[in-house]
Amino acid sequence: MSFASLNLVPELLRAVEAQGYTEPTPIQAAAIPLIIARRDIMGCAQTGTGKTASFTLPMLHLLAPHATNNPSPARHPVRALVLTPTRELAAQVEESVRTYAKFLPLRIAVVYGGIDIKPQIKALQAGVEIVVATPGRLLDHLQQKSINLSQVQMLVLDEADRMLDMGFLPDIKSIIATLPPVRQNLMFSATFSEDIKRLADQFMRSPEMVEVARANSAAELVTHQVYEIPAAEKHALLAHLVKTRDMQQVLIFTRRKIDADKLARQLVRDGLSATAIHSDRTQSERTQALEDFKSGKCKLMVATEVAARGLDIDQLPFVINFELPHTPEDYVHRIGRTGRAGSPGEAISLVSPDEYGFLADIEKLLKRKITRLATPELPASAARSSRSASGGDKPATSRSRSGSAGSSDGDTKRPRTSSAEGVAPISEEERREKYEASRIREAKSQGHRRSGKRSDADGDSAPISNHKTVRPHAGPAFDFSKPYESIKAPSTETSGDVAVAVRPAGVKAVRRVGALLGGVKK
Ligand code: AMP
After folding, report:
1. 24 lines ligand 1 (CB under 6 A)
2. Per-residue model confidence as pLDDT tens digits over 302-349
3. CA of 71 to the centre of ligand 1 (A)
4. 53 C-alpha to center of ligand 1: Å?
5. Which atom of ligand 1 is found nearest the CA of 310?
6. Could you tell me the distance, in angstroms and rounded to a whole number, from the CA of residue 125 to the centre of ligand 1?
7. Are 357 and 383 in contact (CB under 8 A)?
8. Exposure string over 243-264, b if 16+ CB within 10 A, otherwise e
């Protein structure tokens, strides 16, 4: 299929060609005609599938008749609103919209917290057709009446699952209340939980569900590996792996901001170039960290979940989970950073005994056992300094074992914000951490296995099951014409897979054009 066959306006075809895209990705092929037909859409897709263009191109196509060079702000009302959970994602979506809209006189603005609100007010007052926003800052604008959403004809909720995870539901509802009741709604999410379905029921009109994921790219190009290692030795192993394997670009995940900073400092002391990205850093620090990482100035970027969400870093070869996330879906999101655009990638997890429960949950979700690698011989000095840096022989993760994400010292620190800037009072990560803490409490109260004990009968001291080192699968270069295996559209609800094809009330049809992580059974 070609982009031309999607009947997009010539200005968009030129923009797509300028990007070097030869044909639409599966989600683009499926979603674009439906959106152009003004249908509501629920898209089950992660970043990396081309989902941004799948809603941006038809959005611009529908707005093209309104494109005008007339300078009057009145001729540029907000007609499309895109909500994203994080600032980084908002900035990325805005960049994409600008790229695809470069041959159309449509105006775009991005609004998010953590930066001065005044330039945003100025941009909005000049008139813009498309606004990309995070919910908190958009509410600030609504309260200050610096934005008028009464002419919005299209609403996009990007990464809706993450927005709900972060507690944005009340904000989203408040924002939706200011929109015209008749409008087109698009919602994209990597997972479709009951909460997402409820949200869809509330604000969408008989949405079509389009489900797609990077089946082959993740299944074939990303190698999942685990080192089972005491928490106190993780840092030494990490430094050893980076050095001995000459890793040039590694995104490393910790659960907490304070640990991201600490680990980045330790790695710098090891002579490695490292930076940290999390929501306690100012927006300019975050932008700088990302730029340094993308440009290769910094080989290692230690990130928390939220900060890394949605980052589009081309051909990221390594993702290392210094700590496992508490929910298996987050593992899927984290490893979604690698194996992108068809490049092979490695997802390596350093798993201490207290995390075996989380690992078992991840394997359950992936429907596969992740390869265990034998821990290499670590230089004695590195292991020693690592232990002392993490406070003796106590596992470094013992703090987080309490399950009280966000409960200790630096974690609860407010982000550097100024009330004069109108920054949302609760940062993205604080929302997230509160949410995680409540989920952990809930899981505990339900007797969910979170004991930190190994899930099999061998116990903590069991030998590592597989000592074979697995090399990354050197798959072929990504070919957007053949990356996805089509799978039959399920006629009934399915569940238990990584990508759960659901049919929420009101969803007319499920179009499934790919499988996520190869986890969906055909
Ligand atoms: P997204 O899923 O929106 O984060 O996009 C992932 C990456 O795929 C981005 O770097 C896009 O520039 C790229 N991309 C989007 N659509 C296409 C296409 N049709 N052909 C090639 N690359 C694409």
Report:
1. yes
2. 998 766 665 666 667 899 999 999 888 788 878 877 765 556 788 999
3. 32
4. 7
5. 4
6. 32
7. no
8. eeeebebbbbbbbbbbbbbbbb
Whole-angstrom distance, CA of residue 522 vs CA of residue 515: 9
Which atom of ligand 1 has the smallest separation from the CA of 49?
Answer: 2
Distance from the CA of 348 to the center of ligand 1, in angstroms? 25
Q: Is 483 in the pocket of ligand 1 (CB under 6 A)?
A: no
**Helix residue ranges, H only, 229-282:** 234-244, 257-269
pLDDT, tens only, 191-206:
777 888 888 888 999 9
Q: Among 353-367, 414-428, 489-503, which is the least confidently predicted range?
A: 489-503
Tokens standing for residue 365 = 């979700």
- 25 pocket-lining for ligand 1 (C-beta < 6 Å): yes
Query: What average pLDDT is seen over the chain?
Result: 74
Give yes or no for a contact between 163 and 5, defined as CB atoms under 8 angstroms apart. Answer: no
Q: Give the per-residue pLDDT at 48.
A: 72
Find residue 319's DSSP bridge partners. Answer: 251, 347
DSSP notation for 93-135: HHHHHHHHTTTS---EEEE-SSS-SHHHHHHHHH--SEEEE-H
Q: How many residues does the chain have?
A: 522
* Token output for 32: 């674009």
Nearest residue to 97 via CA among 59, 56, 158: 56
pTM exceeds 0.70 for this model: no
Phi–psi pair at 133, nearest 5 degrees: -145, 155
For residue 170, the CA-to-ligand 1 centroid distance in Å is 31
Q: Which two tokens stand for residue 338?
A: 């690698």
Name which residue sits closest to atom 11 of ligand 1, judged by CA: 50
Between CA 249 and CA 297 the distance in angstroms is 10
| Token digits of residue 340 | 């992108």
Determine the average pLDDT of the residues in 463-468: 27
CA–centroid distance, residue 459 to ligand 1 (Å): 44
Q: Which of 185, 190, 197 is nearest to 212 (CA)?
A: 190
Q: What is the CA radius of gyration of the chain?
A: 23
